[in-house]
């Protein structure tokens, strides 16, 4: 929310809340989006937050409550009177409600399920069967549907009534008598069709759908591929079970992108906002890979120890170690970032592995020759030593080629092992290339200079 809107909203809400002017407070909140009201909640005390949720009408309270962070939801739902909490939960969208219940203590889950309306409680139990990172865990069970033999006029009449209880209506899903998804009609198509025609005549047959068990990242790719506003979810018999809406897909994309960025920085994924993560919890997620990389870097010291005689004989060799390891690390990080991104978006598949590796080998040679020429010139004209220049130039070509090969091979190898290839990017690939670069550089120096 823009700061000027927040400066207007917070004092006005607090003044009306303190004066117990509930109707005026509802009017003010109605002029703002639920996400904007949720954003200003942190400016109120817990007692004031609970009062707001108690005084607002149920639908508004549920909309605002859905926009709060899970930690705030858990705190506030525990503070509300149980009957009021149950009514707010009843009004929430099924997918958001199920997400909250997954984080609640079992005691509260049992208590609220007993107090909620039976259909909503059954929805929660159904959605909690599925892992949260699958289509089943992501979907909402509220969607518009009709039988294929229904006429367009009947479908429109029923939809007007059905839409009152639905969060969103993008499409009308058409099912047969046993609930199997057989077609889909967009609202535009429904409005433009002859009222006397049956849905089976105007629907798009064989609609695209996803299975309950499909991973959320793949679901997001399918929605993006077909430009759908909602994706139907079916079971193994093809029966419609729910829909995944585009707003949930946006959340998935953001979550997956954040997770990949964190893994590329060699740390465990953090599933909370930075300022909400505890100090020691954040340290625990970062320390493992830092320790692992520290031990790998100790190999660099061992390499230098092995070749210490060569370095003592030609001290200038040491001058160019940072240049070489830095160049190799940069080339490897560039390659691994592109390959990890390609694997994540589906631009690169395992079948493309050999083509990618060959392409990056030639890319490494090409880039290495250009960079090696600069390195040769720096060593030759800077140190006045032709042999040292050749050593550095050849080493740069070899190191850049090795780095691009490693940057393409390792992510593909990890995907082949069904592991997240993002782990092989960033500091990890840079550290491996550092060690390998020293070995290549000093071995070439040993052969050319001694």
Detail the topology: elements first, then pairings.
Elements lengths: L2 H16 L3 H9 L3 H7 L5 H10 L2 H10 L2 H10 L2 H10 L2 H10 L2 H10 L2 H10 L7 H4 L5 E4 L4 H11 L8 E5 L5 E6 H6 L6 H4 L1 E2 L4 E2 L4 H11 L3 E5 L5 E6 H19 L14 H28 L1 H6 L2 H4 L1 H25 L7 H31 L2 H31 L10 H23 L1
Parallel strand pairs: 1-2, 5-6
Antiparallel strand pairs: 2-3, 3-4, 6-7
Descriptive overview:
The structure is a single chain. This protein has 450 residues and is of the alpha/beta class. It folds into three domains: 3-130, MgtE N-terminal domain-like (MgtE N-terminal fold); 138-245, Roll (CBS-domain), CATH 3.10.580; 274-449, SLC41 divalent cation transporters, integral membrane domain (Tetracycline Repressor, domain 2), CATH 1.10.357. Helix content is 68%, strand content 7%. The chain is built from 23 helices and seven strands. It has helices at residues 3-18, 22-30, 34-40, 46-55, 58-67, 70-79, 82-91, 94-103, 106-115, 118-127, 135-138, 152-162, 187-192, 199-202, 216-226, 246-264, 279-306, 308-313, 316-319, 321-345, 353-383, 386-416, 427-449; strands spanning 144-147, 171-175, 181-186, 204-205, 210-211, 230-234, 240-245. The strands form two sheets. Strands 1-2-3-4 form a four-stranded mixed sheet. The chain has a three-stranded mixed sheet with strand order 5-6-7. The longest helix has 31 residues, at 353-383. The mean pLDDT is 87.
């Amino acid at each position: 929310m823009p700061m000027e809107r927040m400066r207007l909203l917070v004092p006005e809400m607090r003044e009306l809340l303190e004066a117990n002017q509930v109707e005026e407070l509802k009017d003010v909140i109605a002029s703002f989006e639920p996400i904007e009201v949720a954003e200003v909640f942190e400016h109120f005390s817990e007692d004031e937050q609970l009062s707001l949720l108690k005084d607002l009408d149920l639908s508004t309270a549920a909309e605002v409550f859905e926009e709060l962070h899970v930690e705030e939801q858990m705190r506030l739902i525990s503070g509300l009177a149980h009957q009021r909490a149950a009514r707010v939960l009843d009004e929430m969208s099924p997918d958001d409600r199920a997400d909250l219940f997954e984080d609640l203590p079992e005691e509260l889950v049992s208590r609220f399920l007993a107090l909620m309306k039976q259909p909503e409680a059954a929805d929660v139990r159904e959605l909690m069967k599925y892992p949260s990172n699958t289509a089943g865990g992501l979907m909402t069970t509220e969607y518009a549907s009709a039988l294929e033999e229904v006429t367009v006029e009947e479908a429109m009449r029923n939809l007007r009534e059905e839409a009152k209880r639905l969060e969103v209506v993008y499409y009308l899903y058409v099912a047969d008598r046993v609930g199997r998804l057989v077609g889909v009609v967009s609202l535009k198509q429904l409005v433009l069709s002859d009222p006397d025609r049956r849905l089976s005549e105007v629907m798009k047959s064989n609609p695209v759908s996803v299975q309950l068990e499909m991973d959320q990242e793949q679901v997001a790719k399918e929605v993006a591929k077909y430009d759908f506003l909602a994706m139907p979810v079916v079971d193994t018999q093809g029966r419609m079970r729910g829909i995944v809406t585009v707003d949930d897909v946006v959340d998935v994309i953001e979550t997956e992108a954040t997770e990949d960025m964190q893994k590329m920085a060699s740390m465990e994924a953090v599933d909370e906002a930075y300022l909400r993560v505890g100090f020691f919890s954040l340290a625990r997620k970062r320390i493992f890979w830092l320790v692992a990389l520290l031990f790998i870097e100790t190999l660099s010291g061992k390499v230098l120890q092995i070749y210490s005689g060569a370095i003592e004989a030609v001290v200038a060799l040491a001058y160019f170690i940072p240049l070489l390891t830095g160049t190799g690390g940069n080339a490897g990080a560039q390659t691994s970032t592109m390959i990890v991104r390609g694997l994540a978006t589906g631009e690169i598949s395992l079948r493309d592995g050999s083509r990618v590796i060959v392409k990056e080998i030639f890319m490494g040679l090409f880039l290495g020759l250009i960079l090696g020429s600069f390195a040769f010139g720096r060593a030759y004209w800077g140190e006045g030593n032709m042999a040292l220049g050749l050593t550095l130039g050849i080493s740069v070509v070899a190191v850049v080629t090795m780095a691009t090969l490693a940057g393409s091979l390792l992510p593909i190898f990890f995907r082949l092992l069904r592991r997240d290839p993002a782990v092989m990017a960033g500091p990890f690939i840079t550290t491996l290339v550092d060690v390998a670069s020293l070995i290549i550089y000093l071995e070439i120096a040993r052969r050319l200079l001694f």
